[in-house]
Design a protein that fits this description.
By secondary structure, this protein is an all-alpha fold. 62% of the residues lie in helices and 0% in strands. Keywords: Membrane, Transmembrane, Transmembrane helix.
Amino acid sequence: MSQQTNWETSAPVNPQKGFRIHLLVFFLTTPAIWLVWYLTDRTYPWPLWSTPAWAIGVLFHYLGVFVFKNSKKN
């Protein structure tokens, strides 16, 4: 049995849209994470680890999409 896949036909990629989705998820999820922390044990502020780490990821995503644009070579 063989499975045939065609990797050449894919949907067009829009990097700006991908970044906007990443930023939206960051802004919607981060307050939820802090709310969970607030409503549970507040002895250690564990969201202080995930929030800046994720923000750095969003920053690098922004830089990759808008600052260091890679032109496609066809």
